[in-house]
Write a structure and sequence with these properties.
Layout: H1 2-30, E1 36-39, E2 49-56, E3 64-77, E4 84-92, E5 96-98, E6 103-109, E7 117-125, E8 131-138, E9 144-150
Antiparallel strand pairs: 1-7, 2-6, 2-8, 3-4, 3-5, 3-7, 8-9
Length: about 150
């Protein structure tokens, strides 16, 4: 009788553990839908410059989620002419849905950064079909200084 009770308890415990493991795997897969990213990299701006990162959903049929991440860096030194920066602050927007023929943009103003600071903007997307454009422009006149069309990478 003892043997039968011990076997029943062991079987019940193993079923509970297996069901918990399957539950964790499902939750992990659902929490990471934004797997494609593109970013500006570390950029130093003058007070009269503005950095834009624009995401366009294009003319397709798919809607997808996007988030923006803005990071500020501070210079810690430049030994041998190579400057080292560390993260000073980082903010990430909540996920938002991009629908066809819709765009979203995040700006970083050079006037927000000090002389020993730099910044970056990154977009996280659930679709590799998002069209990402990075642009540096004059903050006063709006004249474009440089443009980069980015590819989303997993």
């Amino acid at each position: 009788m003892k043997r039968r009770i011990t076997l029943s308890v062991a079987l019940l415990l193993s079923l509970v553990l297996v069901s918990l493991m399957q539950s964790d795997a499902t939750v992990e897969a659902q929490n990471n839908p934004l797997r494609y990213s593109a970013g500006t990299g570390l950029v130093t701006l003058t007070p009269g410059e503005k950095l834009h990162l624009t995401v366009n959903a294009g003319a397709g049929d798919d809607a997808f989620a996007v988030r923006f991440r803005r990071t500020r860096y501070i210079k810690t030194g430049c030994p041998d002419g190579v400057c080292r920066y560390v993260v000073q602050s980082q903010t990430t927007t909540p996920a938002m849905i991009q629908t066809p023929n819709q765009s979203s943009k995040l700006d970083l103003m050079g006037s927000e950064l000090g002389t020993n600071e730099a910044g970056s903007i990154e977009v996280l997307s659930s679709s590799r079909n998002a069209e990402v454009t990075v642009q540096i422009s004059d903050a006063v006149t709006g004249q474009t200084k440089s443009v980069l069309i980015a590819l989303l990478l997993p």
